[in-house]
Write a structure and sequence with these properties.
With 294 residues, this protein is mainly α. The protein has one domain. The protein is built from 11 helices and 3 strands, in the order ββααααααβααααα. A 3-stranded antiparallel beta sheet has the order 1-2-3. The relative contact order is 0.14. The N terminus is likely disordered.
Length: 294
Amino acid sequence: MYIIKHHQIVDQQTGQLIQEEDDTVEVEMQSDIYSLTFLKLYKEMNPLLHRELILKCVFTFTLQVTLIYLLIPEEAEITEGTIQLNLARLLCAIILHISILPEVRNSLHLLRFVKFNMNSFQNNQYASAGFIALMKLIGGISTELINIYVILVSDNIEDVVKDFIAFGFITEIDNLIIETLSVPDASESNTLIFSKTELEQSESELLSILLTKVKKKYSKSAKPLKYKAAALLELGMSMFGYFIYTMANIFYIVLYFYFMPFAVLFLVFRFGPTQISTLDMEERLNFIHRNATG
């Protein structure tokens, strides 16, 4: 959810309102372990708490990936199925997509926030914050992708629904973990504040801003060698983060947002075998011969 905050421009001499414009955008965070950890890395100077929360995030991500792996069937192939089966597949894919979409969108906002505020994180923890946002993104997208594959190889409606419920539970693990924490304000809604222009910058403008920030930060360094090493390291981190964010954002805009659920239908009719195509060569020849002589 976005809440626009207004910035008023006042004439300092007369005290009259000159202009009122939208200046910042407040992005409401989700109540999960990834979002909480990200916020604590940004707002609080507490290394012990940071370490505990990062370990919780790694544990949550590992648990999600492990469960996803265990749900992948062995030696299965996509089946075309009946109209009812394909309809159940499509509906389950759409419902899961709708439930995961806010998580994916929020993780992209977190990655973008890191790029604009690298120097604002406590203890210079921007790399950890980016890693947390990336785990949140991968967890959501991989859950949906594997769910689509699993329901495609399921050959009855009951299995499709059971698989959908199982993957829906996996997406909620990060929300459940946060309930086990004793961190103050862990369940409260928190927000990140963007400059409005930060959400509207194009990818080329974002890259230019990153390079300018790195150059400006070290341009007055008294030690050239230290300047070069630090600038090179931060430039490398910035470029890597920029590449990850750009690829994820392109995938989100071009494919994920609108078309991901409909991949079910495409894959069924593109790769799902028909009754005749599953016959071996001898059976196929006999089939053709019987039709020709009949």
